[in-house]
Amino acid sequence: MGKGRLEAFSDGVIAIIITIMVLELKVPGEHSLASLAPLAPVLLSYVLSFGYVGIYWNNHHHMLSTIHKVSGAVLWANLHLLFWLSLFPFTTAWMGENHFAAVPTAVYGLVLLMAALAYLILQQALIAADGQGSVLRRAVGSDWKGKLSPALYLAGIALTLWRSWAGQVIYVLAALLWLIPDRRIEKVVHD
Length: 191
Fold this sequence. Notes:
- InterPro entries: TMEM175-like.
- This protein has one domain.
- 77% of the residues lie in helices and 0% in strands.
- It is built from 9 helices and no strands.
- The protein has helices spanning 4-23, 40-64, 72-86, 88-97, 102-130, 135-140, 144-162, 164-179, 183-190.
């Protein structure tokens, strides 16, 4: 099977996820800037989650640009990733509406952790489907960012239960780690 349908489906689901997140934002009843202050946690949660969804979309695109074949395992691994990404609107809203309380922030971290693990599973399924000459295998190499991210999310979850803000700092740092598109893939594809 070709990868076109997988890309189109994934792009559609990710677009819906972003749409749902933005629809969760409620417009204040007043027209002053001061009326936005109580919404700050909701807006900050949205910005963080929008960044994460954008990072996953960007890296998903780069990863799929390296492959030629899609297997049944790839389809299921992709759905697994999309499942965890589809929970972003819920956990984003819960965390923001509750002003970054410990439990919603820890659950948000759990969803980040599961999405990161699902991405790694998809990456391995794509490498297996493409075979020994996999460009993706060559591109990701030791994949230190992919291995570091789950550890950061675990640390963030643990820190959240101690001090909610500390976990949030870890989540932001993990996002910053991935903000730059994966140059390893671009380098191998353009060589």
